[in-house]
Amino acid sequence: MKVNKIDRISLAGGLIGALFTNPRAAIDSRVEEANKNGWNLHQIIPHTETNLFLKIISILVLIITFSLWTFGAGYILLFEKEIDNN
């Protein structure tokens, strides 16, 4: 039987996020950690904030920090693992 696990990677936004965030390294390290625990990556989905309230808060944080930082979008990783039914 297969079981699934969903994992979310959050990335920084703003100038700090643009300069110092490496999405590929974040995904690689999370997948490597999951693989050590027996999980296989099934799908990567870009995660964007669709909640209007959180979008407004994100913009306000960006304004308050003079465009240096805000919480950003990220990725949703779907893992699967084969488990024994016994």
Write up this protein.
This protein has 86 residues and is α+β, with helices and mostly antiparallel strands. It has one domain (2-82). Helices cover 40% and strands 38% of the residues. It is built from 3 helices and 3 strands, in the order βααβαβ. The protein has helices spanning 14-20, 23-36, 52-64, and strands spanning 2-13, 40-47, 70-82. The protein has a 3-stranded antiparallel beta sheet with strand order 1-3-2. The N and C termini lie close together (10 Å). The mean pLDDT is 92.
Count of helix runs:
3
* Number of strand elements: 3
Give the low-confidence spans. Answer: none
Distance between the termini: 10 Å
Q: Estimate nothing, just give the exact number of structural domains.
A: 1
Shape: elongated
Instruction: Going across the biggest sheet, name each strand in turn.
Output: 1-3-2
Order of helices and strands: EHHEHE
Strand content: 35-45%
Radius of gyration, in Å, reads 16 Å
- Could you say which structural class the secondary elements and strand pairing correspond to? alpha+beta
Helical content stands at 25-40%
Tell me, rounded to a whole number, the average pLDDT.
92
Largest sheet properties? 3 strands, antiparallel
